[in-house]
Amino acid sequence: MKYQRLRDLREDADMNQTEIAKILSMSQTGYSKYETGENDIPTAVLIKVADYYNTNIDYILGRTDEKKPLPPSTRNKDL
Q1: Rounded to whole angstroms, how far apart are CA atoms 77 and 67?
Q2: Is the predicted pLDDT of residue 1 greater than 70, yes or no?
Q3: How far apart (Å, rounded) are the C-alpha atoms in residues 25 and 3?
């Protein structure tokens, strides 16, 4: 799966891959492999990216077109 939205979010923030990789404490090459779909994104990294861009994980994964995170009152805390 190619994560086009990762690239879109990064470019919307006027960042390059090296900058976001540094924030995620990883190499630019490692981050690039997420954007191209060569590697799947680990859950911990996915959470950091969603938090950094103030978006929700389902948006990054292409499961919804809603960018904003769910309000705390609608999150399922029993999962």
Answers
A1: 20
A2: no
A3: 19
Give the pLDDT confidence score for residue 77 in this predicted structure. 45
pLDDT tens, position by position, 18-58: 999 999 999 999 999 999 999 999 999 999 999 999 999 99
- Confidence at 3, pLDDT banded by 50, 70, 90: confident
* C-alpha to C-alpha distances, 5 to 28, 65, 76, 77, nearest whole angstrom: 17, 10, 24, 26
What Cα–Cα distance (Å) separates residue 36 from each residue in 3, 27, 31, 39? 6, 15, 9, 8
The enclosing H or E element of 45 equals helix 43-53
Sign, CA dihedral 30-42-44-59, equals positive
Say if residues 56 and 69 touch (Cβ distance below 8 Å).
yes
- Reference 56, options 76, 70, 74, 42; nearest CA is 70
